[in-house]
Amino acid sequence: MDLARQIDVTPAAMASPDTAQDPAPAPRRRRSQTGLAFIAPFGALFALVFILPILYAAYLSFFQEKLIGGTTFVGLANYAKLVQDPQFWDGVGRVIWFTLIQVPIMLFFAMALALALDSMRVHGARFTRATIFLPYAVPAIVSTLMWGFMLGVKYGLFGSLNDALGTDIDPFTPDTTLISIGVMVTWAFTGFNMLIFYAALKAVPRELYEAAAIDGANEFQVIRAIKLPAIRGSLVVTIIFSIIGTFQMFNEPQILPSMVANSGVTTYYTPNLYAYNLAFTGSQQGYAAALALVMAAITIAVAYAVQIRGIRNASDQ
Amino acid sequence: MHPTSSPRAEGGKASRTPIRHPGPGRRLHTVENPRKSKTLTVMTGLFTLYCLLPLVWLVVNATKSQADFVSSFGLAPGREFALWDNIVQVFTYQDGIFSRWLLNTLLYVVVGATVSTFLAALGGYALAKLDFTGKRVFLFVVLGSISVPGIALAIPQFLMFAQLGLTNTPWAILIPSFINPFGLYLMWVFTAEAVPTGLLEAAKIDGAGEFRTFLQIATPLLAPAGVTVLLFSFVSIWNNYFLPLIMIKDPAWYPLTVGINQWNKLGSTAGNGALIQNLVITSALLTIVPLIIAFLGLQRYWQSGLSLGAVKG
After folding, report:
1. Taken in order A98, A100, A103, A105, is the CA torsion positive or negative?
2. CA distance B269 to chain A (A)
3. Candidate from A52-66, A135-149, A153-167, B210-224 with smallest mean pLDDT
């Protein structure tokens, strides 16, 4: 079998998992219901935690709380209000911009690191892999505190830097806060994504590399022809997870204002922060419910679009 | 790193012969063991530094007194080594409420992660090996729910739990943590692959009931995926901030994450409270140490579990 053919066929075959679609083609028994008892506890709690809250939120979203007159049915008024709410769209715009810039940078680093470690040309690969993953285990609250203190001009390194050089760099001004949040998020999640890529690379049959070496392919040809196609499926997964993550950004902008005086973080900085403030300080629960539902719908739609595109690209190959 | 660490990579492939030893005049390095590259090591090293820097900063500053924290350079040690003092203060400040937060967190994590892993294993097993009406619908709904953002869900959950009178009780944190759709997915894929149907049939022929077959035959085979799901549930519950923030108003039921931020706010620029940044930093360090130990100690398990998810994903 010649190299090119082998390279084309095998990773593609691996990318379409045979069992994932329907892993239950055990010899078809009579339609027994034994599984129901096993699935029932999960199903019941799932209904309580996922389905009922969404239905209840949908119900609440048809009501508004007024200072006078209490809660009244308003039909779709909350949704109509949301569509025209500049504060909501300001937050949506911010997370979209953030996603467009931060996610590619993070995934580029994750992929480059996975390829570097998989090439087995790096000294101390085990240590590197574990260290880069470590931030994933750090809670967002701790990560925000650390980075906030460490970068801040008041107690942190930029304060010392400014003192030493006479500069005036502040990582937490209305113009720079989002960049600093990007640095924190990239720190926290690059390792997780790297491991997903790395695991996909490890699943490539080693004979492919041997065959490539016999044919005289260099490392870059191997990356292009074998490794990148092998991690295509993982790329779709990591993009979807990253989009879901950044669209619901909350912790960093919620915590930062208590650490930095002029961070520029508003009460509607991200859609979720806005929903939180509406529900808990503005006591506009119906409006907050509508916002949460619309945001979930937008996120699912985007994640779904990415997935469809990913599948189409894979089958184009 | 040996290249056969992935169970899939070696499955059924007989020709594991390493590449023939290179003839004279060619590189002495093989495909399996290429020459190490300095450039590549430096580049990955820089990123490793970025990952380590805040953690180093945290450790260094947990050893400083409040006075030293305010006055000394961030990455240099302070005049006195105050780590033990800080730890004692963390555990005694406000009548020792930190221990309460630690115990709360342990309660949420141990109960939540155990129940969610068990439910995911039961469900995954049923999906892979058993039959029931509505399986496709169930799968569609549960897998679809993976892409529902957790935070978008938390506000509806809060509104409903408030109606049910569950807010401000530990149940408000425990019940949502029992359900882990991604864990169910991992267990499903793993059961399909690692548990031979024939073995289950044999157990049933010998007279074991469905549940006993699951517990005695399948569960031991599912251990690697189980550890992965357990560990990731553990981390996500330990690190959860938003859900307890909205569900719990009584500081006596706070987990660590919400409690620490409470302390942080005390000393914030806006408040008039005492500056206790040394306690905030030391408690932050104490919060992450158990997780880091768990992750490093269980590396072997979760890495293989994760690789399964990645290959299937």
Report:
1. negative
2. 7
3. A153-167
pLDDT in tens, B194-207: 888 888 888 888 88
Q: Which of A74, A54, A55, A68 is closest to A287 using CA atoms?
A: A74
* Token pair recorded at residue B40: 């590549």
The Cα B21–Cα B27 span in angstroms is 10
Residue A114 backbone phi and psi in degrees, to 5:
-65, -45
Find all residues with CB under 8 Å of A60, minimum gap 6, and list them: A285, A286, A289, B159
Q: What is the per-residue pLDDT for A20?
A: 42
Sort out which chain B residues have CB atoms less than 8 A from A252's CB and list them. Answer: none
DSSP H helical ranges for chain B? 7-10, 38-62, 66-71, 83-129, 135-145, 150-164, 171-177, 181-194, 197-205, 210-213, 219-221, 223-239, 242-247, 256-266, 277-297, 299-312
ipTM confidence: 0.83
- CA of B82, closest CA in chain A: separation in Å? 18
For residue range A202-242, list pLDDT tens digits in order: 888 888 888 898 888 888 888 888 899 888 888 988 998 89
Which residues of chain B does A229 touch, with a Cβ-Cβ cutoff of 8 Å?
A: none
Enumerate residues 6+ apart whose C-beta is below 8 A from A175. A264
Q: What is the mean pLDDT of residues B219-246?
A: 88
Nearest residue, CB atoms, A300 vs list B36, B148, B269: B148
